[in-house]
Amino acid sequence: MSTDRAASPPLPGRDDVLDLTRELLRIDTVNPPGNEREAAEAALAYARARGLSGDLQPLGDGRANLHLVLRGKGERAPLMYCGHLDTVPLGTARWTRPPHAAEVDEDGVLWGRGAVDMKGGLAAMLVGIATLARTGTQPLGDVHFLATAGEEVDCAGARAAGQRGVLEGVGGLVIAEPTDLDLVVAHKGALFLEFVTVGRAAHGSMPEQGVNAITHMTTLLERLTALDLGSVTDPLLGAPTTSVGTIQGGSVVNIVPDRCTAQVDLRSVPGLDHAVVLKRIEAVLDELKLTLPGFDARMTVTGDYAAVGTDSADPLVRTARDVLGGVLGRPPKIAGVSYFSDGSVLQPGTGLPTVLCGPGDPNLAHQTDERVHVEALERAAEFFTLLPLSG
Ligand SMILES: [Zn+2]
User: Fold this and answer.
1) pLDDT band for position 4 (cuts 50, 70, 90)
2) How many other CB atoms sit within 10 Å of the CB of residue 62?
3) What is the number of other CB atoms lying within 10 angstroms of the CB of residue 139?
4) 29 with 178, same domain?
5) Looking at the structure, do residues 284 and 319 belong to the same domain, yes or no?
6) How far apart, in whole angstroms, are the C-alpha atoms of residue 118 and residue 121?
7) How many angstroms is it from 85 CA to the middle of ligand 1?
8) In a domain, 2, yes or no
9) pLDDT tens sequence across 208-243
10) 163 and 58 housed in the same domain
11) How far is the CA of 80 from the centre of ligand 1 (A)?
């Protein structure tokens, strides 16, 4: 006999997000190989039981994305909730608690590979829209939920979803990567580059008769790490960075090496166009070919993930900040993070307002003994329940 039920917003059930996170953690989705389909099916079963509709998008070899939709009142452009189903491998160190047992300790901390990155965040988003569906609460606009395969290796799931036009008409993207419940409005992009220098072998006692591929590589790498990437710096992320990740060359001490390979990890910030960066690097290669006798090098792009940035004054950021502030009982921190996400694949070229917000300490992502506070999962689920109701 209540007359004001509609006035109070729905909230997730007591153990909803903990139970769903544990269910997902017990399914091994270490990538490679991924095997995300089993987790996608579990999430779909959970969603359908609560009145949500959607389907799997099979990607072959036990892999799949999941796409769900909760219909809204049409008063706002659709919102997209997005997260990935796969995790990184376990690493070689011994875990304090088994990585796929989803144990909760006496301090209310849930342990497991993916607890932070990002099955906790994924479960919180799904619980959010499932709570709305279960209680018959219509959000202001449609809410899509996209759970992707493959983010930890090559964002293959997000690419496939993008090609299927999953973002058509969508007005805002929210990704539940771990941010410690800060509101992240910018993240770095990455260009993974492989360089090969080719020289000419000679006896080590007569180096003048050869062309030293390692020496040429070190010259090239010095030029690359000193490369002027323009004056693009981001207020939250700082300047772009370059790091040499691997180098291999030569066979024995007394032969001038005729081949050297190096991999470079270049991290970009919003506003730095990767095509422009690649042109600058090609110009360096051309110049060295002209000025360094025998210099011969080629470059291969092995990974290309754009930086993501959204104006802090964007309505999505303002709404998310207000709702999150209400949940946390304090204004949330507006931040940037160094890692990239599926947003690198989904946002570029669309101008789509994009924010990241999820439970868990990002420093624990990809680490041995990955774990998250259950309370943070609950706060996140509350946030993802209320966000679609606010404008
Ligand atoms: Zn992640």
Assistant:
1) very low
2) 14
3) 25
4) yes
5) no
6) 5
7) 9
8) no
9) 999 999 999 999 999 999 987 866 789 999 999 999
10) yes
11) 17
How far apart are the C-alpha atoms of 18 and 124, rounded to whole Å? 9
Q: How many domains does the chain have?
A: 2
289-316 mean pLDDT: 96
Q: Is 342 found in the same domain as 222?
A: no
Instruction: Tell me the CA–centroid distance for residue 120 and ligand 1, in Å.
Output: 11
Q: Which two tokens stand for residue 338?
A: 């160094």
Identify the band that residue 3 occupies on the pLDDT scale cut at 50, 70 and 90: very low
Model pLDDT, residue 341: 95
Residue 62 CA, ligand 1 centroid: distance in Å: 20
* Position 1 in a domain: no
What b/e string do you get for 147-157 counting C-beta neighbours within 10 Å, with b at 16 or more? bbbbbbeebbb
Domain boundary among 285, 305, 325: 305
Report pLDDT digits (tens) over 304-328. Answer: 999 999 999 999 999 999 999 999 9
Q: What is the pLDDT of residue 349?
A: 78
Mean pLDDT over each residue of the chain, to the nearest integer: 95
What is the distance between the terminal CA atoms of the chain, rounded to a whole angstrom?
Answer: 30
Q: How far is the CA of 382 from the centre of ligand 1 (A)?
A: 21
Q: Compute, in angstroms, the gap from residue 168 CA to the centroid of ligand 1.
A: 23
Is residue 85 within 8 Å of residue 120, measured between CB atoms?
A: no
Q: Ligand 1 centre from 165 Cα, in Å?
A: 22
Asked if residue 3 is part of any domain, the answer here is: no
The confidence score (pLDDT) of residue 7 equals: 63
128-134 average pLDDT score: 98
